[in-house]
Design brief:
By secondary structure, the protein is an alpha+beta fold. It contains five helices and 24 strands. It folds into three domains: 147 residues, no CATH class; 96 residues, hypothetical protein PF0899 fold (2-Layer Sandwich); 118 residues, Elongation Factor Tu (Ef-tu), domain 3, CATH 2.40.30.
Length: 414
């Protein structure tokens, strides 16, 4: 019986299924924004953007007198600017193989690499997450070490459904080693397969070798270097970005502050996002851009902005001005920490769209599977009887609500 010659469409279909099967982080985040892009028959170019509305908040009145509130909605954007690809080269003899043979030998290793790139793109958004529990420099070695993250999610009123955790190998195996103290749903059915620990404390827990590592700046603990009061910034002014630039002093001459560094301010407490009541721990802030101190001082862009009052209140303090208040960093100067993430799916979003079919390209195949899109274009070298196939994906990632995510370190010595 004559064998089927493998085409771009067959290769695209097989590659896409393998790619989806090897995604870890990408399967735990929100994937619905593909529908917000206009349906372009010929596909999309790099740089196209959609806007996403941020959820609004309200205050509850405690009197019978009506008090209508303005509906203030912020927005954020997702831009499809992540372009990745893998290229194959096959002889005509290769293209007469069964797809299963070619898949195992060539396509699968390539798609594993591509899946890692997609997962890593999402995990690199850790720097936008201010909440960090556990002890810097420690690994997860028990359920108690792990449980501080879902506990913090409850304290911040994060939804109880759709919670996931993605752990580095050292933390995954540290937690796995304590399994005798755990009840893991469906453990007898192979919950440990494919790097999954199963559901632990209501959190679907996975292992990934793509967990990023954060290296802290050389900064020392300092102080707030300029006035910050309830009038410094309003929610209306920052509703789209929730970013604020503050002055820090006492950081050490020419010392650095790194994107992703987390700090607290003495006397500035976190609040329950629903009731606005003060919580029993200090509010954490994350640095959004690298900065270098001059004479020990630097202007630092942070998330979230400090909202003192009203429906969007996110801090509570007894001070009228934060100028001179002590700043304490989560990690020591130059510390290196794995950035495990525990999050609700709506904390991050991934958008995958079909790339444009270029004019003049022949036999272009574009395939979609579970929201992921790939494009395969064949190029034939008639002199050497070799076919090259370029496989491309176009996607965008965004931290759409960092309040729903938490970084996690352990409390066990490495």
């Amino acid at each position: 019986m004559a064998q089927t010659v493998l085409t771009a469409d067959i290769i695209a279909k097989e590659a896409l299924m393998i790619l989806d099967n090897n995604l870890v982080m990408a399967k735990q985040v929100f994937r619905g924004y593909e529908n917000e892009f206009s349906k372009k028959v010929n596909g999309y170019e790099v740089g196209e953007t959609i806007s996403i509305r941020r959820p609004t908040d309200f205050t509850v009145r405690n009197t019978p007198v009506m008090s209508a509130q303005d509906v203030t909605e912020g927005k954020t954007t997702i831009t499809v600017n992540q372009r990745r690809g893998v290229d194959f080269k096959f002889s005509s003899q290769d293209l007469t193989l069964k797809i299963s043979e070619l898949s195992e030998r060539v396509i699968k290793p390539a798609m594993v690499q591509l899946a890692n790139e997609v997962d890593r793109s999402i995990m690199e958004l850790y720097y936008k997450v201010p909440s960090w529990v556990g002890t810097s420099g420690k690994k997860i070695g028990s359920f108690a070490d792990f449980a501080v993250a879902p506990e913090r999610m409850d304290e911040y009123a994060n939804p109880t459904d759709g919670r996931s955790a993605v752990l580095a190998p050292a933390d995954h195996w540290g937690l796995l080693g304590s399994q005798t103290a755990l009840y893991i749903q469906d453990a007898a059915k192979g919950a440990y397969r494919k790097g999954s620990l199963g559901e632990i404390g209501g959190v679907d827990t996975y292992m990934s070798q793509n967990i990023p590592v954060h290296t802290a700046g050389t900064r020392t603990n300092g102080t707030i270097g300029a006035a910050i009061t309830s009038a410094t910034i309003t929610y209306d002014a920052v509703k789209d970005s929730m970013e604020q630039t503050i002055s820090l002093a006492g950081l050490g001459t020419t010392n650095t502050v790194k994107k992703g560094d987390v700090f607290t301010i003495t006397g500035v407490y976190a609040v329950n996002p629903v009731t606005k009541a003060r919580l029993g721990f200090l509010k954490q802030f994350t640095v959004l851009e690298d900065a270098t101190a001059a004479a020990g001082a630097a202007n630092v862009k942070i998330w979230p902005a400090m909202i003192w009052t009203g429906a969007f209140k996110n801090i509570d303090t007894s001070d009228s001005d934060l100028n001179g208040k002590a700043v304490t960093w989560k990690s020591a100067a130059s510390a290196v920490d794995r950035q495990n993430l525990v999050f609700h799916k709506n904390a991050f979003a991934l958008v995958s769209v079909p790339l444009v079919s270029p004019p003049g390209a022949v036999d272009v195949s574009r395939r979609s599977y579970k929201g992921t899109n790939v494009r395969v274009i064949p190029v034939y070298d008639g002199v050497n009887d070799v076919s090259s196939f370029r496989l491309d994906i176009l996607y965008g990632v965004q931290a759409i609500d960092p309040r729903l995510a938490h970084r996690l370190s352990g409390n066990t010595n490495p």
